[in-house]
Amino acid sequence: MPFSNEQRPDPDALLAMVNLRESKAQRGKLRIYFGSSAGVGKTFAMLLAARKMQAEGVDVVVGLVETHGRADTAALLEGLEMLPAKSVTHRDRTLSDFDLDAALRRRPMLILVDELAHSNLPGARHPKRWQDIDELLSAGIDVFTTLNVQHLESLNDVVGGITNVRVWETVPDTVFDAADEVVLVDIPAEELLARLKAGKVYFSQQAQHAAENFFRRGNLMALRELALRRTADRVEGDVQAYRVDQSIGSIWKTATALLTCVGPDAGAERVVRAAARLASQLNADWHAIYVETPSLQRLPAARRETILASLNLAQNLGATTAVISSPDVAESVVAYARKHNLSKLVIGRDPNRRLWPWQRSSGQRLAVLAPDIDMIEIGREAKDRGSAARTDATAASFAGAESPERHKRKNLRYLTAALACSGVTVLSMPLAPHFDRSNIVAIYLLTVVLVGMRLGRGPAALAAVLCVSAFDFFFVPPRFSFAVSDVQYLLTFAIMLAVGLMAGQLTAGLRSQARVALHREERAGALYELARDLSGAIQLDQVVKISDESIERTFHATAALLLPDPTGRLDLTSSRSDPELKVDLGIAQWAFDNAHPAGAGTDTLPGSEVMYVPFRAPVQARGVLALRPRNRRLLKIPEQRQLLDTFAALIAIALERVHYVGVAQDAVVSMESERLRNSLLAALSHDLRTPLTVLLGLAESLTLGKAPLCGEQLETAVAIQDEARRMGTLVSNLLDMARIESGEVKLDLQWQPLEEVVGAALDSTRSLLVQHHVEVRLPADLPLVRFDALLIERVLVNLLENASKYTPAGSHVTLSAEVSGNDLKVAVADDGPGLPPGREEALFQKFTRGNRESATPGVGLGLAICRAIIESHHGSIVGVNRPGSGVSFSFTLPLGTPPVATTEADLEAAHG
Amino acid sequence: MAEPVPLALLIEDEPQIRRFVRTALEGEGWNVVESGTAQQGMTDAGTRKPDVIVLDLGLPDGDGMDFIRDLRRWSSVPIIVLSARLGEQDKINALDAGADDYLSKPFGVGELLARVRAAGRRQQTGGGAHAVIFQFGEVTVDLSLRTVHKAGALVHLTPIEYRLLSLLVANAGKVLTHRQILRDVWGPSHAEDGHYVRVYMGHLRHKLEDDPAQPKHILTETAVGYRLVQVARE
């Protein structure tokens, strides 16, 4: 039955799901034991489950569990492996904390880490424990953890409102929502209170008082409801995901998406949380944007940071965030909503600060601009005003603390404005008898406008006031007094003042716009320049030099490019090292391995002075940029961060390009040299073997001829044959050696039984060993081994040949094999005279023989080839004298995991 | 009735090799036609209708592989390939293209004669497949009853082992590459599962050979394939 359009699963969504599932398959699984408050028994439940897993054979390790001295919980810990806690010295106190690195080294299948919301001690890699856990999951380790409802970011304020206790350790909802399983641990409020009375819930001395306030029946019930609801929401999400996955049912995610705006007011955080809750209830995506107008850009840095913090909060709550620079908030919000197809707008209620009755609130303006978009206004909390005032106060104090130089320059501007007014007054004095007063007013107006244009808003206002005063004092009768005889001059004053203020305002606006445009152009210019320079670079040194210089110039920072060596370790040598930049290679390596920024201005080890930005290229990270800006605030400004990220991306692509240019060149060179070597060896092989064939064939046809040879002639003919055959073996050995020595020999590795090559080797050495007693001892259950049959046969042939050459006729030769650890060990032993003592190792060198210049033929290439072959198989070969007499040569081949041979029944079934 | 004298076509550019091969073959009672080039060889193969072709892979006027492919379009005469090249891939390619057997240079005259003899015999009987009873060593294979006996005792073979054995029997004396065996026994979809052949060949040896580590009949041509030898070498 064909699907109607609404019912058909969206292919993109299905693809995303497949990708998600794939990345999830490699990631560890996260299970959260979720409860309404402390004391419900989350840790207990987690430990019970862990013990069960351990009983099922799962490798479980306890990373960190707080028993709070409860005996029943501690009892559960017995028999579980505990990871030692890391002790950290902090402010002269030794504290213990979860040891992330030890956990990553230990790599259990499942690790237990209590208290997801915990904040790590300063100096730890991540500020928050959930980030530690994220890293564990990325490493493919499953994690069990615990969480209380009040620690969930989006419910944080709600819980704070209910209990009047606001907790500061929070976990982003995305972590909670991304958890693979959430287990709700729930007990009724009465029972919890009973447990509390029985002293089963532990609190530290300091928390005792707060706890008494917290554990009231009403609070507990409300918290329990919240926890249940949140879990229910999640379960519903799971059900929906399942339905989408299984293509059942008709509930499809609607196209609804929310947009919320973050403003400079303190209520922004509240709006963001409200939007997050709404989005999760609607099961919709949501975006949070901050429109930065020129006036907002003039805000002191502390206020801007508050705004960025709200935006960051939105991101943590799962929003897509953006910063837009535009003079008109309403227009750009509507444009953004239309571009991203967002049908609902969540905004905070406008504070009443309209100057004029005809000014509209931004909400009203939005309604006019986009009548089709739903708007949700979030109310304000009374106390937000207070906090707004407080932020303003801090902002003001911050503004007051600006640099003395700037302060001086500002004073100078006011002084110039005052001087201009006095100057004009002095110049106008002689004109007064000759010109009408209205002309004098025009001169003053001109002054005010000029001051506004040159010096800005503040000085323009000052100039307006001064000019009005001067005009009044010097020109308006009665002169030399501020009294005014004619009322109409009051209008003149008002107009002058208004013109002055407006001119100042106008020019100030223009100037700030120009400044924004200039900054933007500077950024674009820097990017353009970097892109152009990098596109011309074909060598690594060039890329490093260009990037170093460009970053230092653009960001006023000391920078270094750290590039990895072939093993993936970063080193400093690749960049010119600057002593001023104290690079911590550990952090840099972390940033590189995780392809995530670290150090100053990030979530990971923010205590460091240096920021580490990985160069994320399409294929893999190509290095790390270590950056130490002279002004640390620079890293917090979103435009600068974006610019830095763009720089990093550009450099990453340039590095990747250079890398692949190198790879391509190497490939061409190696292909060319391999082709040359192969054709050379092939020609050599042909040219050496053809005359040998003739020699052997002719000698042999002598012995097989119709006219039988006499004894001596026959002996000669047989001797020629033997020598020709030996020569043939020698040629093969030499050619093989040349091939292996060149390092380019491609092993034809196949899974095969050893028995087969043993048979082939014995077959080809049969004529040499006719006078020896050969014994083969192969266990029937030898596993398949992966090797190049031809080369291993050559090893066996050489070893057997040696045995025949160096032992007298009638000796015993034993070929045996056994599994030893992770290797297959094959030995060829004889009971001949053995090796000259002390020469065991030297025999494996090229052109070495047991007895120099002995009559036994061969140049001693055999064992050298054996070693080369075995080592190319990652095995080892040794020769030792056996106790008693004789020598044993043995080599190993790694076992590995043979492919599962399909059983006969399967194959039969497949054949039908 | 006089038995017709068998004819061998020898395609080899090295005159000295031609000389001793001719001497040896004539000693065995063969007529020998010699060609120095692939082109001449192709003409001779068409006009003289040889019973066996001995072909050198490195000819001055073309690749021996092309010769085999061209010839196989219209003739099934046994081809024995001589190779002086490095590695086994050339031999495998030649066998896959349709050659019956190969010899690496330098080779002994005795070996060559044995191979030519076997090929000639195959050509005369039209291959082992038509015989109902096939024997090697102590083993008797009855192709009509699908039974295998060793020294008089019935040997139980699984269906795959039997298919493998009957393939070897049908091509007795001829070298079969891993690829050919996989294709014929397991089907074309298993062309890459080389270890199947090795594992089952091991089973066969354990059931049919006296000493599986030193087989006398089911021989391994290392890295190339297998060959069933009816008469064990001494």
What would your notes on this structure say?
The complex is a heterodimer of chains A (912) and B (234). With 912 residues, chain A is an alpha/beta fold. Chain A is 52% helix and 15% strand. In chain A, the strands form six sheets. In chain A, strands 3-2-6-7-1-8 form a six-stranded parallel sheet, with helices on both faces. A five-stranded parallel sheet of chain A has the order 11-10-9-12-13, with helices on both faces. A five-stranded antiparallel sheet of chain A has the order 15-14-18-17-16, sandwiched between helices. In chain A, strand 17 and strand 18 (621-629) form a beta hairpin. In chain A, helix 18 packs antiparallel against helix 19 (457-474), helix 23 (638-704) runs antiparallel to helix 24 (711-741) and helix 25 (754-764) packs across helix 26 (789-806). The longest helix of chain A is centred in the C-terminal third of the chain and has 67 residues, at 638-704. Mean pLDDT of chain A is 79; it is low at 1-7, 248-254, 384-402 and 852-859. The mean pLDDT of chain B is 85. Chain B is an alpha/beta fold. In chain B, the strands form four sheets. A five-stranded parallel sheet of chain B has the order 2-1-3-6-7, with helices on both faces. Chain B is globular, with a radius of gyration of 18 Å. In chain B, helix 6 (159-170) crosses helix 7. The chains are: A alpha/beta (912), B alpha/beta (234). At the A-B interface, helix 23, helix 24, strand 19, helix 25 and helix 26 of A face helix 1, helix 8 and strand 13 of B.
